[in-house]
Amino acid sequence: MSLSDIHPRKRASEDDNGTNKRFRQSDTHDDTKKTETASQDIELILPRQVNTHPAKIPDRKRHIQTISSIIKRKQPFEKTPNLRAIEIEYEIAKTTTHITYASTLRNAIYKLQHPEKFQSGAQTKKHSKDDVLKLLKSIEIPISKLRQYGFVMSVPEASPYTKITRNCQRCDTEFKLSQQLEPTTCEFHYGKIRRNPDNKTRYYDCCLAPKDDSRDIKPCESRKYHVYQNSSVEEKQSLRSFVKTDEIFDQRGKYRVLGIDCEMGYTTCGFELMRVTAVDYFTLKTVMDTHVLPFGEVVDFNTRFSGISSIDGSFVSFNQMIQELGMVMDKDTILIGHGLENDMNALRLVHNHIIDTSILYPKFESTPTSRKSLKDLTFKYLSKNIQVGNHDSAEDSIAAIEIVKYHIDRMEVGKHGN
Ligand SMILES: [Zn+2]
Ligand SMILES: [Zn+2]
């Protein structure tokens, strides 16, 4: 996790102090050079000035160099690869933030490296926007299936959990809720248990320690507090009520199809929503990225997965977040995600138009509720490696959208339902 993920404001002012002067130099440099170098490339690579603070200048420079070297290899007839690389990076930099810059850039680099894959994808263009909407409608997951996968499809009865103890989500130790904020030791593996190639033994993918029930092996992670999740929907309902989107989002929202991703952290009220990201299907632009104040007191930000490590002035109330969501979506907007029931439950929304990539591409047809990970799907269908390095909130949404696009590209209008 880089500092930029945590303190966007701080990062921005660092750029202002340290490198703005160079920005300006590079801009004038570009403008004067552009006319006289129509057929002549420039030697000196300087990123063009943008106001979005997507990344530090040395990083942007490095990316331009990478793009330029790919252009030299893949497009030997391009006379001004450096200029073109600066332009490509600039187009990305000016439309992204420090959150979306890295993934957008990775996508662009991938496309430059594999033009053949996107030529075949060019057949996508035969679908008009209306056709795409029709096709998407035809692959919406039926409500009965959504229910089977844990989506809440009608507002549940509230039923608070009355026991005064909980079992820790991470280490399974039983603890008293009233003592959750008294420091203790919570030791656990944050990774998943995986099977070794011998198919008999297993290991944790966080630290590669063997999973051996006969031996006591010290877990790789340690925290001061135990944590828990609200498991049942009735319990969730008693904390904050579910609402139907057709009752609250009756004004037309801006977007017809959105990728949705929520980040969660542990509080004294369980596992709570802390951030909501929405990405437009057609442009892949992040159209909403809102930090949400939780109800309870924060016990663990779950930073490794949430990318959040502190609460600052940018956090808004849950209700304010719902209002913002109502600006970008409405009751008919198709929502795309992977394992989206977790996000919808965190948002406490009952919504009928869902395309969940984990349901669209199940692991085995025979056991439909066993899911493939988004990382595996993305690798299999898009030959892309995601979720490496810094946490990027838009990355998962974009990956789910691209899997759906892959699916849509291979469909024909008129053959599928309405
Ligand atoms: Zn571990
Ligand atoms: Zn614990």
Automatic annotation (TrEMBL):
Name any GO cellular component annotation. Answer: nucleus
Provide ranges: composition bias, Basic and acidic residues: 24-36
Q: Which GO terms describe its molecular function?
A: exonuclease activity; nucleic acid binding
Primary subcellular site in the record, as a coarse category: cytoplasm
Superkingdom? Eukaryota
- State where the protein is found: Cytoplasm; Nucleus
Question: What is any one GO biological process for this UniProt entry?
Answer: rRNA processing
Per the record, which residues fall in region Disordered? 1-58
Q: Which UniProt keywords apply?
A: Cytoplasm, Exonuclease, Hydrolase, Nuclease, Nucleus, rRNA processing
Q: Per the database record, which ranges form the Exonuclease domain?
A: 256-413
* Gene3D superfamilies per record: Ribonuclease H-like superfamily/Ribonuclease H
Q: What does the record give as the function of this protein?
A: 3' to 5' exoribonuclease required for proper 3' end maturation of MRP RNA and of the U5L snRNA.
Family label = Belongs to the REXO1/REXO3 family.
The molecule here is called: RNA exonuclease 3
What taxonomic ancestry is recorded?
Eukaryota, Fungi, Dikarya, Ascomycota, Saccharomycotina
